[in-house]
Amino acid sequence: MHLVDVCAFYSPSGGGVRTYIEQKLAIGPQLGHKITVLAPGDAYTIVERGPDAQIITMPSPRFPLDSKYWYFDDEPALHAELDRLEPDLVEVSSPWRSPLMVARWKGEAPLSLVMHADPLSAYAYRWLKPIFSPEQVDRRMRRYWGHLRNLGSSFDRVVCASSDLSKRMAAGGVANVVTHKMGIEADVFSPAKRDEQMRISLLQSCGLGPEAHLLLAMGRLAPEKRWPMVVEAVTAASEKAPIGLVMFGEGREKQAVLRAIGGNPHIRLFEPERNRETFARLVASADALIHGCEAETFCMVAAEAYASGLPLIVPDRGGAADHGADGGFVYKSADAADAARAVLECITAAKHGTSGTVRTTTDHFRDLFDDYEQVARGIPDAA
Questions:
Q1: HSE (CB half, 13 Å, CA atoms) of 285?
Q2: Angle between helices 254-261 and 227-237 (to 10 degrees)
Q3: Which helix (H) or strand (E) holds 218?
Q4: Mean pLDDT computed over 244-271
Q5: Same domain, 170 and 237
């Protein structure tokens, strides 16, 4: 099968979508498929990643709100490139303009939309939460829901990585919704990588001894991640027990996070750890992961922490909630007081996470591509 991924979110400078794309380019050919990623860029380029893997960029404008990204603006050129590539299936990974452009393509290949973003949770629900419930927001976002329903009727698959997002999409009347949960890198994360000396060192950086509890937080420093709320919750919980929190991330909200930490010596913010082996040891060496974002489409950090044997403290909405449902400690989204309650419940339980089998990235792509092959052959309800 030749899969063409029209990926408006791809940026060579990094990000979760780029990681996913790199994994797809590596694993797809191993499973017998040809993968072409079609992305916007400064110029037309073809970068070969092997005999059956390539990235093609098309001349496109820079995205005005983030110069690391571009956006497709030439629909005839996009259609011509799809004609030239002759895909067996076209995948689109944005809920905005590019799927509409692909839906108007006259080619015969089936189409799949992958929901790498959840704009309602990331923006509308969060911005309007003080006034409206998510259900009330949905009623006021009829135009956007109409857009999603139109995409659902135009695409053969609408792929979500969490059951929470799938349920909301289906409840909103979006057709052809399926769930294909992602996975983690095989043989990278494991409870066996726990390093007690690293744990002691991290607690020392928080001004605490080894008897304290070490919480870990990881991710972009962005508003939807709710790091100030996480800091508030841990600070409140630490009034009843010795708790250190180490946070690893970078982004435009760094100063807001530092202001939230203030002079608390038991909470430290570090740059991301980019060495994967060191990162895996770091994750396994904490006592629990705490996460604040209810807008995750999958929540890779929760999956990695779960595979590393950590209990999870997560909100009750979004992709993180899927991981927390299996023995985690769940709190009401965006509620610092309830998050503090979950923190104390977790450390009182003194229970470690799983050491069992976890879903790998290869598992994810094998299931996804098997589904796509059945779609390409015209087999209904394959997923």
A1: 20
A2: 20
A3: strand 213-218
A4: 96
A5: no
Domain residues for the domain of 335 are 191-349
Kindly report the pTM of this predicted structure: 0.82
Does residue 77 form part of some domain? Answer: yes
Are 182 and 161 within 8 A, CB to CB? yes
Considering the domain boundaries, does residue 355 fall inside one?
Answer: no
Give me the percent of the chain exceeding a pLDDT of 70: 90
- For 39-64, what is each residue's pLDDT tens digit? 999 999 999 999 999 999 999 999 88
The mean per-residue pLDDT over the stretch 364-368 comes to 97
- Please tell me whether residues 102 and 202 are part of one structural domain: no
| Residue 382: pLDDT band with limits 50, 70, 90 | very low
Residues 117 and 203 in one domain: no
Residues 11 and 66 in one domain: yes
Place of tokens 């990681």: 19
Residues 15 and 126 in one domain: yes
* pLDDT classification of 127: cutoffs 50, 70, 90: low
Asked whether the beta carbons of 248 and 238 are under 8 A apart, the reply is no
The pLDDT value recorded for residue 332 is 96
Considering the domain architecture, whether residues 137 and 204 belong to the same structural domain is answered as no
| Cβ-based neighbour number of residue 173 at 10 Å | 12
- CATH number where 285 lies: 3.40.50.2000
Q: Which residues pair with 265 in a beta bridge?
A: none
The total domain count for the chain is 2
Going along 187-299, which residue ranges are E strands?
A: 213-218, 243-248, 267-270, 288-290
Q: Which amino acid is at 316?
A: D
Q: For 58-117, what is each residue's pLDDT tens digit?
A: 999 998 877 788 999 999 999 999 999 999 999 998 788 899 999 999 999 999 999 887
Other residues' Cβ atoms within 10 Å of the Cβ of residue 130? 7
Provide φ and ψ at 268, rounded to 5°: -125, 140
Share of the chain above pLDDT 90, in %: 69
206 and 315 belong to one structural domain: yes
CA angle 77, 82, 86 (to 5 degrees): 150
Domain co-membership, 286 together with 160: no
| Token pair in block for residue 360 | 């790998």
As a whole number of angstroms, the distance between CA 213 and CA 232 comes to 16
CA 33/CA 366 separation, integer angstroms: 10
Q: Taking Cα atoms as reference points, which of 294, 319, 293, 275 lies closest to residue 219? A: 293
Residue 25 lies in a domain: yes
